[in-house]
Write a structure and sequence with these properties.
Length: about 100
């Protein structure tokens, strides 16, 4: 039970969310916010295409870690929308195969 809450996956998720919060703080309302949104969306798409569970883990971490899903927003598209879209595209790819 200790590994479930204090294992490698927990610290990897905590590190990723912490890094995302720092990057979001310094890129707020700049052009870099769009770039980071695209990078996170593409990384989610690639990971979810490789293994669908990874995309679901990213989506759940984003849901739990950020309250409103507006950590990165560009052109009316938030990070929550980008991650959801990437997971859905990966799911459709898996379904088509």
């Amino acid at each position: 039970m200790k590994d479930q809450f204090l294992g490698k996956a927990f610290f990897l998720t905590l590190t990723g969310l912490t890094l995302a919060f720092f990057v979001a703080y310094f890129s707020l309302h700049t052009g870099a916010e769009t770039v980071f949104l695209l990078l996170i969306g593409l990384a989610t798409l690639l990971l979810a295409t490789h293994k669908l569970e990874y995309g679901l883990y990213i989506a759940l971490a984003e849901l739990i870690g950020t309250s409103h899903g507006h950590l990165f927003t560009a052109g009316g598209i938030s990070i929550r929308m980008a991650i959801f879209g990437a997971v859905m595209i990966a799911w459709l790819t898996h379904l088509a195969r």
